[in-house]
TrEMBL record:
InterPro entries: PELPK1_2
Cleaved signal peptide residues: 1-24
Keyword Signal appears in the UniProt entry: yes
Name of the protein described by the UniProt record: Uncharacterized protein
Keywords: Signal
Length: 169
């Protein structure tokens, strides 16, 4: 029984690990704005080649004609047969039986609730809260730290393996 549970756990783990995240990546790619073009070339890195302005033409190709679809002959359908409407016979319902009357009964008088004696409560004693004086809070001095400037990393149109695929056309 333990081996069956272990096998089921392995199957569940495999199913979870092999789940597809393509929909999320596609949604991210479709909703992410395109990258901004680079401002200036970076020294030491070759420039990205540009595409040719003239797109080569594709030679014309002849396609065989589409075969004709046979027409369906027009047919007259038989008329719909008349359906007899069933008649419901009138039924007579027996009269409703009369409900027996409940006899009038005199109830005994309600017992008197004994009254509570009048009591006076002793006065509430006054609670004295002692007044405390706290010492002043010492001032906390945070030293001013200047961080060095982060060097800029040039943006290059190099595909990264972890970046989402391009948006669908």
């Amino acid at each position: 029984m333990a081996s069956m549970a272990s096998f089921l756990a392995t199957i569940m783990a495999c199913a979870l690990l092999s789940s597809n995240t393509c929909h999320g990546a596609r949604n991210l790619a479709d909703t992410t704005p395109p990258a901004a073009p680079t401002a200036a070339p970076v020294p030491g890195i070759p420039a990205v080649p540009t595409l040719p302005a003239v797109v080569p033409t594709v030679p014309a190709m002849t396609v065989p004609p589409m075969p004709t679809v046979p027409t369906v002959p027009q047919m007259a359908l038989p008329p719909m047969p008349a359906m007899p409407v069933p008649t419901v016979p009138a039924a007579t319902v027996p009269p409703m039986p009369t409900m027996p009357t409940v006899p009038q009964v005199t109830l005994p008088p309600m017992p008197v609730v004994p009254s509570m004696p009048k009591m006076t409560m002793p006065p509430m004693p006054a609670i004295v809260v002692p007044k405390l004086t706290m010492p002043p809070m010492p001032a906390i001095v945070v030293p001013k730290v200047t961080m060095p400037q982060i060097p800029t990393i040039p943006s290059i149109n190099v595909p990264m393996p972890f970046v989402a695929p391009p948006p669908s056309a």
